[in-house]
Amino acid sequence: MSESKEKTKTSQAEAEDEVIEIEEEESISVTSFIFEWANAFMVALIVVVLLLTFVFRQVTVSGTSMTDTLNDKDRLIISSFMYTPQYGDIVVISHGENYSDPIIKRVIATEGQSLSINYDTGEVSVDGVILDETYIKGTTIKLRNPTEIPDKIPAGYVFVMGDNREGSLDSRSTEIGLIPVENIIGKAQLRIYPLSQFGSVYA
Fold first, then answer.
1. Taking 60 as the threshold, does the pLDDT of residue 2 lie above it?
2. What are the domain boundaries of the chain?
């Protein structure tokens, strides 16, 4: 009987040891899972912060110079990484010498291109080709203090206009003038607000 009891105690002890080992393994497993999840979260957070800092930014449209393409209070995502301005791009421009706040306009001509505006007909030509500007509102009119457009847009500059051609102060006026490329913060990519118009800002 004594021997039988000893065996029973030994079996119980071994069973308890196995339970303890299983519980310790489960505890280690849960801790490991939490650590891995927290590590993945931190990496994702860092990536998002870097993207928002160096690649993507959020801006809010102020004013009506880009209607009907963009409206006042629209919220946009813009990108800046490895960006080179092209015709048709909607860009956010940092403040210049004659204006204090960033502005949003559309690139019409880039360096090396010739630009002409026929204010009698409202036609805009780049390199001798009349642009098919389906995005504009109103007629391209002459603004106060008109800019003297050079034969070719100089290196490092672009000519921009708002889509609301009768309600936009832009490169047509010396108050804005030609825009240094280095003053372009980024290109508008996506409208995120209002949600009913969520999507690309390009038709």
1. no
2. 61-195
pLDDT at 123 over 70: yes
Residue 3 confidence (pLDDT) = 53
The secondary structure of the chain as a DSSP string is -HHHHHHHHHHHHHHHHHHHHHHHHHHHHHHHHHHHHHHHHHHHHHHHHHIIIIIEEEEE--SSTTTTTS-TT-EEEEE-TT----TT-EEEE---SS-SS-EEEEEEEETT--EEEETTTTEEEETTEE---TT-BS---PPSSB----SSPPTTEEEEE-SBTTS--STTBTTT-SEEGGGEEEEEEEEEESGGG-EES--
Pick the CATH number of 61-195 from 3.80.10.10, 2.10.109.10, 3.60.21.10, 2.60.40.2470: 2.10.109.10
Q: Helix, strand or coil for residue 45?
A: helix
CA distance 172 to 117: 9
Give me the catalytic one of 7, 9, 65, 137. Answer: 65
Active site residue 65: yes
Give the active site residue among 2, 80, 100, 105: 105
9 tagged catalytic: no
